[in-house]
Design brief:
The protein has 209 residues and is an all-alpha fold. It has helices at residues 2-5, 7-23, 28-46, 52-63, 65-75, 80-110, 116-141, 153-168, 173-208. Helix content is 82%, strand content 0%. The structure holds ligand LX3Z4C5P, L-MYO-inositol-1-phosphate and magnesium ion (2 copies). Homodimer.
Length: 209
């Protein structure tokens, strides 16, 4: 939902930065890679130290590279094999970022954060979120579309980053526990929605054959 509704606004917001980076001869791939390194550093260094607020600030500062890289690619007129490579790199490194964010939270709560349930729910969000992305990627590899569902990547990130950041500012941990629980369920529902979407398309194909 956010991917469709907020994209235009965020594209307008980040277009000047994308244009500047292109003028400085920075490539979209460099932005993808540096953004991923920044997200991983913020999540895997600061979260396990219990710095939930500053970790979130660092992750948020770098996570928008995922918007900037695409704007740059389109402004540079990337097409054909270049765009396919860019799409592959973008989506694959998104998975690395997701793993770092939920993994970093889990590391804190399994360790000094001492809250097994919250750590386990962070792992559940990571696993279910990966399934969401896999379902779409596999559908697209077969020529179907599965870009649907209540918990796409933007929603997952907004929910986890907002509540983790607020937890770092003093919000009681149970709010984060519940958010992760709801997010894990919403991600599982999204997997179901994507399976249903592909099933409907394959049925239509069979009926038309
Ligand atoms: C100025 C800063 C403002 C900060 C405001 C913060 C408030 C946030 C409030 C709401 C957040 C709403 C988020 C909305 C998301 C934006 C919508 C959007 O665009 O989503 C999708 C994108 C990108 O997806 P994708 O990568 O698929 O698309 P691309 O456009 O990149 O295109 C891909 C194609 O591009 C080509 N290509 C790409 C790369 C490459 N190297 N080469 C290429 O060729 C190729 O053809 C590809 O196919 O973004 C996301 O999904 C990321 C979402 C980020 C959401 C971040 C949420 C953070 C929000 C809140 C955190 C608050 C923390 C506060 C802490 C304090 C707490 C008190
Ligand atoms: O499928 P999902 O995880 O909800 O959402 C995402 C897609 O919207 C995006 O186009 C892709 O670049 C990401 O890697 C990710 O797959
Ligand atoms: Mg991107
Ligand atoms: Mg992406």
């Amino acid at each position: 939902m956010l991917n469709r509704h907020a994209r235009e606004l965020f594209t307008r917001l980040f277009t000047p930065l994308a244009a500047l980076l292109l003028r400085l001869r920075v490539s979209p791939d460099a932005v993808t890679v540096v953004g991923t390194a920044g997200v991983c550093a913020g999540a895997l260094v600061l979260y396990p130290l219990g710095e939930l607020f500053w970790g979130t600030v660092a992750v948020t500062a770098f996570v928008f590279s995922d918007v900037v890289d695409g704007i740059m690619a389109r402004m540079a007129g990337r097409t054909g094999r270049g765009a396919q490579w860019g799409s592959f790199l973008d989506s694959t490194l998104d998975r690395v970022q997701d793993a770092a964010v939920f993994g970093g939270i889990a590391l804190w709560f399994f360790g000094a954060g001492d809250d097994f349930t919250t750590g386990a729910l962070a792992v559940a969000c990571l696993a279910a979120g990966n399934l969401v992305s896999y379902a779409r990627a596999k559908a697209e590899s077969l020529g179907y579309s599965a870009n649907t569902g209540i918990a796409e990547r933007a929603e997952r990130l907004v929910a986890v980053l907002l509540v983790t950041g607020l937890t770092g500012l003093g919000l009681p941990v149970p709010f984060l526990t519940w958010t992760l629980g709801i997010l894990a369920v919403a991600s599982a529902v999204t997997v179901g929605q994507r399976i249903a979407a592909v099933r409907a398309q394959t049925r239509e194909d069979r009926a038309g054959a």
